[in-house]
Automatic annotation (TrEMBL):
Annotated signal peptide: none
UniProt main location, coarse: membrane
Matches recorded under InterPro entries: TM_pro_TauE-like, TSUP/Inactive_protease-like
Protein family: Belongs to the 4-toluene sulfonate uptake permease (TSUP) (TC 2.A.102) family.
Name of protein: Probable membrane transporter protein
Keywords: Cell membrane, Membrane, Transmembrane, Transmembrane helix
Membrane topology, as annotated: Multi-pass membrane protein
Organism: Rhizobium alvei
Subcellular location: Cell membrane; Membrane
One Pfam family hit: TauE
Amino acid sequence: MSIYLPIAELSVNIFIILGMGATVGFLSGMFGVGGGFLITPLLIFYNVPPAIAVATGANQVIASSISGAITHFRRGSLDVKLGSVLLVGGLLGATLGIWIFSALRALGQLDLIISLLYVALLSTVGSLMLWESVNALRRAARNETISFKRTGQHNWVHRLPFKMRFKKSRIYLSVIPVVTLGFGVGILTAVMGVGGGFIMVPAMIYLLRVPANVVVGTSLFQIIFVSTYSTIIQAITNHSVDIVLAFILMMSGVVAAQYGVRAGQKLRAEQLRALLALLILAVGVRLALDLFIPPTEIYSIARGGAE
């Protein structure tokens, strides 16, 4: 069954879109990521224009993140104070990111830049995460103790000023790296349509030394508000949010996110990170192939879409 998307100006199979939303929602709840790094490329693969895919993909991130964050809040695995500090940086970063998005679109380079950014970012992050996860799994197989936070051991982040105590996470940390992390993720949310969880989750664990049990919920909390802000401003500024597409993605994403949270609790942290790394690498490779492999039809006067 086909449905017409008014902003994207093409017809799509509604069941394929529902499947995309459900898949991304499930992964969002399972890994604690917004899922924008996956839904945006999937929409681009399905011939949705990149500008529409970025802005609308951020909308789907909101729905799945809300669903997952509520579950973590009920279970006490969400640090609202830490998430609020991340949010301050995220809103500032999203504001700058929307300006960059508009500038690139005016120059006619938005589609290429989005694809290149995705390939570079996903390949780098995925490779680093996979390397660390494999090492962690090897240590676990040898029954070695894996500790992310050792007594008396601090890195340069913990020597910065303007410290704040986050009781839920049991850390005493400067707000500077927290706001900076949120700022960077905010830019990515606006420019690439990602929630940024695939960067925020490992950064909170390895850089900020936040306990793993509160990282996922706190990441989703921040993603909700930054993605909402980005979506609203994108709709007002660039008119690139397709509400019909967003609604279909949200319907399936919210339901699937609950099942993702349950599935994630059955796997060890090292296994979750390894699976997420493989997923990130797979998306990056697929985008790279689209960039470097010549198309079957070099010239076309028609706009791609689903029949």
